[in-house]
Every structure is written in C-alpha cells, then in structure tokens.
Amino acid sequence: MLKLKKNFYSLVFILILVSSLLAACSNSAEEVSLGLTQTYEYSAEASKAPTKRATEALESATATRLPYLEIDPMQLDGISIEFLHPWTGETAVLVQGLVNDFNKHNEWGIHVDVESAGGSDVLLDTLETRLAANDMPELAVLYPFQAQRLDGEYYWLDLSKYIADPEWGLSEEELGDIPEVYLRQNQVGSGLIGFPASASAAVLFYNRTWANELGFDAPPITPEELKQQVCAAASSNLQDKDFDNDGTGGLLIDRSPSAILSWIYAFGGQLPLENETLHFNTQAGLDSFGYVKSLYDENGQLLRCAWLGRQPTPHNYFATRYALVYGGKLEDITLQAQAFLRAQNSDEWIVIPYPSPDGSGTLLVDGLSFIVTVAEPETQLAAWLFTRWMISSEVQRVFIEANGTWPVRLSTVELLQDYQQAYPQWDDLMDMLPEAYFGPLTAQWQLDRLVLEDAFWQYLQGDADRLPDILELLDATIQELSEIYADE
Q1: First-residue to last-residue Cα distance in the chain
Q2: Which end of the chain is more exposed for a tag (fewer CB within 10 A), N or C?
C-alpha cells in the first residue's frame, strides 16, 4: 500500500512539473479587417436593473454608483490596453481582425494591443511571471479557476459592478440573453471574477447510422443502454473480416478532466462548494469510475466495450467505425465533419449528453472568460468596454464561425443559420443549458485536474478491486496539495 502511494505521488508531481514546463509558440496573427463597422451601442434599456437570472453576484451589485464608474467618455480617448489571449491558428487570426476593427471604429478612441500566448496554460505561466514583475496586461482571457491563481485581491476586477451600471453595463434584455450558467461559473463570493468569452461543453459523439444497423433505434439515455450499444459495436468489429479493428468499436474513452467530471456528475456527483477541497471518494466516484472500468474490462482483451486509442485525436477512429461513441468537446464538431469527408463516410452522427441512470442526461459546460486587471478607473473601463463589444451578437457570430463554441449571447444563434446548416450537431444540446453543470472554480483545480486524470488512468490500467484505494489516494493527494497551496 505504501509503495503504491509513493508511486502515485511521484507520477502526480511529475505530471505537474511537465505541465508547468510545456510551452507553445504564439501565432503571429496577420492583421486582417472584417469590416465590422457598427459601433456597439446601447439603448435606454440599459437603465433597467438586471434580472434575477443573472446570479446573486449581479443582484448584490450596489445601487449606489461607485466613484470609479463616474467617468466622462472623453477621458477614454487615447487610452491603450494590452490584451492577451490563448487562442491559436484561425481563431487567433480572427481575434486580431476583430481588434483591428474595434481600434478603427470604436466611439471612445480606445486602442487595444493584442497578442496570443499560444494556449491557456502557457498564458497562465506568462501572467504569473508578469505578476511578480508588476507588469500585468489590462485584459486577459483565462479559465476562471486559473485567474484565481493570480492573487485575486490584487489582480482581477469584480465585473458585477460594471455589468449592473446604468451607463456602461448591460440592459435587462441583454443580460437575459446570457445563460445563467455562463455567469455562475465566474461567480466568486459576491462578485464576478470575469465575463464569459466563449462557452464549450463536454459531449458524446454518436454514430446513429451504425447504431441503427446494429438494431438500436434511439440514442442511449442511461448507462445500461450505452453499455448495450457499445458492446454490440465492439462485438461487430470483432466478428467482421477486418483483423485491424479487433478490440475497437465501442466507447473510445476520453481521459480528460471534463469527461471524468461528466461521468461523476452523471452518477449523482455534486458541484463543490466555493473554496471546498474536492472529494472523489464518494458513491458517485465509485459508481462512475467503476462503470467506465467495467466497459473497459468487459469480456477480456479482444472484446472491450470501451477502449483507449493510440492516435492523439478521436476523429479518424469515429469516421472509420472504430468507435460507435466517443467523448469530446464542441470544438471537435468541425474537425469531425472534416474527418468524415476524408473517409468518404456518409453515416449520420449526432452529439448526445452523458447518459445518467434517471435518463435525463448530463451536460458539463466550461469556457474561457475575460479577466480585467485592477488598474486606473479609465483603463479598467476601457478594458470592460472592449469586453462588452466582443460579446455583441455580430462579433460573436464571426467568432463562433471560426471557433466552433457556443455564443455567449443566445440571440447570436439567429445569425448563425448557415453555420447550423453546415454543422447541424452544433446546437443539438443547447436546450440543456438551464440544467448544465460547470467545473470547480478554486485556484487549486489547475493542479487537481491533473491528479484526477492520473488517478483515472491508473485505475483503468489496474485491477477493478483497487478502486477504493485509488479514490482514497486521490483525495489524500488533493488534500496534501491543498495544504501546500495554503502555505504558499
């Protein structure tokens, strides 16, 4: 037992060290213009109070206007802000184009300098270094739990006061256009650590055509139904004349933290309370880990109802019927469509929620957020006004077409009809947003997610009866990290 614990700890901390050393080259995004000439304007509706849908943080925003919001718009002319984000590739080029248009057309004379860090973890490392040097950018895009690692008292600005402000904030109609879960995953205490920049979700990709051929006329909504279907697919691949696909066909396992959390929530796991140390040695942890493991171990090596791929991405596996189901994110939809085209496969596929015992399904959402640095009032306001412009419907339309996530404002969907026709799976689960889950918001989740992923991997590779020990060690490691983090 002691040896197992030492090996587990060693591997965990190696993973953490490797993660902290990873780096990626930032894209030198070309300057492009998108022709977005409309100024982001607000009507008299902006004077209305926000609705109760907008979380407790907005409800508690003071009715008395704070001094740092009493700014003459003329004072914003000539203010320059630095904007760091994690997006790469086509999305980074697109963001550069959006910034170009904002700089050219915004009514206040604000100038934004934008740069891609090449990934969210790389960006966090950069910000931690710059925080120590007292050289922070005015605006960054991070996951909310990452922003909390940056000494929130001195770094992030509570945006609830800006959102609720009658002059600079959002109208009741605009606020009601934003799913509450997007705001709640930014809520820290009575304030908002950030404002949603993009929204993704953990989903299962499902080959409806192949399932029909196997005798199933509906997607699985319970774990037992999923087991029946993925085991039938695995059996089909084992019995055909293609020896290369033996051991495949069922559920291609996603080992990402968002997938693991989705399984835990599907089996009754609860959202952690704010600043609560995470615990996975629970009935939901036992049931969820045990379920996936049972699929992986089903009937031995040749017939695995769930399996682990060697390729870095699942898209070709799914397009060539090596998997009936796999776990992915919204951003995989466009990549999956391209893989089906390459494979010349006309199968119909959809995205479905993680099945739950009660058949209601489970959807876990996450997303990056705009984080504004505490600075001079005029600079803070300039960063917020750019953020507000970035979530306008027209800007969101352009962004989503390149990025593939869900829009921050639901009214943007009406502007994305061509995109919906090209990728009909994209909005399949959007009606589940009111009941969606989100992940932990604590600063320690940056490390805890690596521990969770490693524990899940170890359990898949070991004996089924090790589960209680694995979960006990998982919680012990998280507790130890919590104590180390508290002493920093």
Answers
A1: 30
A2: C
Please report how the helices 445-461 and 257-266 are oriented relative to each other, as an axis angle in degrees rounded to 10.
80
What is 31-199+367-438's CATH number? Answer: 3.40.190.10
Sign of CA dihedral 48, 52, 57, 61: positive
Q: What burial class does residue 147 get, using C-beta atoms within 10 Å of its C-beta: 0-12 exposed, 13-18 middle, 19+ buried?
A: buried
Distances, alpha carbon 270 to alpha carbons 184, 266, 279, 375, 410, in Å: 15, 10, 10, 37, 27
Q: Please, which residues have CB within 8 angstroms of residue 347's CB and are 6 or more apart in sequence?
A: 207, 208, 209, 210, 321, 340
Residue 238, token pair as written in the block: 């084992």
Three-class SS state of 323: strand
Confidence at residue 186, expressed as pLDDT on a 0 to 100 scale = 94
Q: Return the sign of the alpha-carbon dihedral for residues 438, 440, 443, 445.
A: negative
Give the pTM.
0.86
Mean pLDDT of 53-73: 66
Count of C-beta atoms within a 10 Å radius of residue 37: 9
**What stretch of H or E contains 101?**
helix 89-105
| 413 DSSP 8-state letter | G
Q: Which CATH architecture has domain 202-364?
A: 3-Layer(aba) Sandwich (3.40)
pLDDT digits (tens, 9 = 90+) for 455-465: 999 999 999 99
- Tell me how crowded residue 370 is: count the other CB atoms within 10 A of its CB: 26
Structure tokens at 229: 């279907």
| Separation between Cα atoms, residue 147 and residue 133, nearest integer Å | 17
Q: Distance (Å, rounded) from C-alpha 284 to C-alpha 156?
A: 34
Q: Where in the chain do CATH 3.40.190.10 domains reside?
A: 31-199+367-438, 202-364
Element (H, E) at 68: none
Residue range 292-346, pLDDT digits in tens? 999 998 665 567 899 999 999 999 999 999 999 999 999 999 999 999 999 999 9
